[in-house]
Specification:
six-stranded mixed sheet, AP_endonuclease_F1_BS, Deoxyribonuclease I, Chain A, globular
Amino acid sequence: MKIATYNVNGINGRLPVLLRWLQESSPDVVCLQELKAPQEKFPEKAISDLGYHAIWHGQKSWNGVAILSKYGLPVETQRGLPGDPEDVHSRYIEATVNDLTIGCLYLPNGNPAPGPKFDYKLAWFERLTVYAAGLLKSKKPVILTGDYNVMPTEKDVYKPERWVNDALFRPETRAAFKKLVEQGWTDAIRKLYPDETIYTFWDYFRNAYGRNAGLRIDHFLLNPAIEKQLLAAGVDRDVRGWEKTSDHAPVWIELKDH
């Protein structure tokens, strides 16, 4: 079973890139972030024509998350992150696919920091941590994946000294990610590649992709019930070099069939 996460940075504007990647890579399940499309503008037919069933949580101009599956329609179990009834951002959707619970998330960027946006990021992180603790208690296989907007360590960022005041790399953000992982989650990429330089995002400016001046901000967290089934993981880095592409590359894992 191959599961991927991809921040598409505007699903309709990048649709040719997404469809080409889906055809070439053929993941079984895909989590998408930053749809930047209202609910009614999700390109359902183009995606279903490739054999994927989809659920999505859209929002005009911003945010937006979706789960695609070749195994039939994902059974939605949660839409939006609990804990703040005032928060209307489309940043979390969760479903059961093949007895596996998959949470697709788009964590707030948080810049400029400090400030209200950074406060919102940390509050969202805390809500995610509380909610994730409940998922762990269920003992069912769970994956939390998506754009976390955090580089966990200096290994995950090109020239870390340039990022010390950025919301994605500030100590509070990294501490929040560490606290989440230490509940009992496994960072799939780091489990298989503990020491390698691996990036998932390259800015559009200053030839960042060409210079490999990247960040690792798209993550797969696996709970103990599924972590032992992890076979492989990687980044489809070349997709970042395609024309009119997202500034993120797709990230994927492969699991043993259970």
